[in-house]
């Protein structure tokens, strides 16, 4: 089964001081492999962008790289990358940024690459103190990629344990405290009646203090004077007059 070629973009090399040429060669090799360019001349044509006046000035890709190093590579670029990697520390960076920086510096050292054990120890020693660093020192991975992958897994497990323990719970309802008797208690009616305000010793008849209603001497108007004579009431008066009329309708 033939695998289709993959197109990878390569960042342009500008020859900056902080832009090692060896690191750009790594990107170049990865893009050439993905495009499945196996002919050396074809590799050079693609790498140089077909902008040369003489298309056969480079015989292969290695010759092309050597000429680029002579022209554009800053002095002691690999030495600087090696020194920066050996003193690399995580500090305020997150784990992903720290791992990417470590990979970038290691890939920039091509001529005399750092051995795998030194890469692993330097990466683990640069981690911040915590459970991730302790776990890596317990397992001691063999390669830098394995150490980075194990550190990412440990960080994911810590986040899962931290946020997975907080289960969403419904809001707790405040319990209402009632100090009085139960509403269904038989004695609740007596207690409620006893809590009603009293008249402070005043008479229920005249409303004055100093005596009770049965000893009150204030004369209240009689019911007949208040409501008037019974015969003057409109309803009953008409009924009485009707009863006095003769049954045959002749009062002469």
Automatic annotation (TrEMBL):
Residues 242-252 have a biased composition (Polar residues). Pfam families: Retrotrans_gag, zf-CCHC. Residues 202-217 form the CCHC-type domain. Residues 219-252 are annotated as: Disordered. Keywords: Metal-binding, Zinc, Zinc-finger. GO terms for molecular function: nucleic acid binding; zinc ion binding. The keyword Zinc applies. SUPFAM superfamilies: Retrovirus zinc finger-like domains. This is CCHC-type domain-containing protein. It comes from Globisporangium ultimum (strain ATCC 200006 / CBS 805.95 / DAOM BR144).
């Amino acid at each position: 089964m033939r695998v289709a070629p993959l197109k990878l973009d390569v960042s342009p090399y500008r020859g900056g001081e902080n832009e090692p040429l060896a690191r750009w060669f790594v990107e170049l090799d990865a893009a050439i492999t993905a495009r499945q360019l196996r002919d050396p001349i074809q590799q050079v044509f693609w790498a140089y962008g077909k902008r040369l006046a003489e298309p056969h000035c480079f015989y292969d890709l290695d010759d092309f790289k050597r000429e680029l190093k002579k022209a554009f590579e800053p002095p002691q670029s690999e030495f600087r990358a090696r020194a920066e990697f050996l003193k690399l520390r995580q500090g305020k960076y997150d784990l992903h940024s720290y791992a990417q920086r470590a990979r970038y510096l290691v890939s920039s050292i091509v001529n005399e690459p750092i051995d795998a054990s030194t890469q692993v120890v330097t990466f683990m020693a640069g981690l911040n103190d915590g459970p991730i660093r302790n776990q890596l020192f317990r397992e001691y991975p063999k390669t830098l990629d394995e150490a980075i992958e194990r550190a990412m897994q440990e960080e994911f497990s810590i986040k899962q344990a931290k946020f997975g323990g907080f289960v969403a719970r419904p809001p707790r309802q405040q319990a209402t405290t009632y100090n009085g008797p139960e509403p269904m208690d038989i004695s609740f009616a007596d207690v409620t009646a006893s809590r009603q305000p009293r008249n402070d010793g005043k008479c229920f008849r005249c409303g004055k203090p100093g005596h009770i209603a049965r000893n009150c001497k204030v004369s209240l108007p009689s019911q007949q004077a208040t409501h008037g004579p019974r015969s003057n009431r409109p309803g009953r008066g008409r009924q009485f007059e009707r009863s006095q009329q003769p049954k045959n309708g002749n009062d002469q």
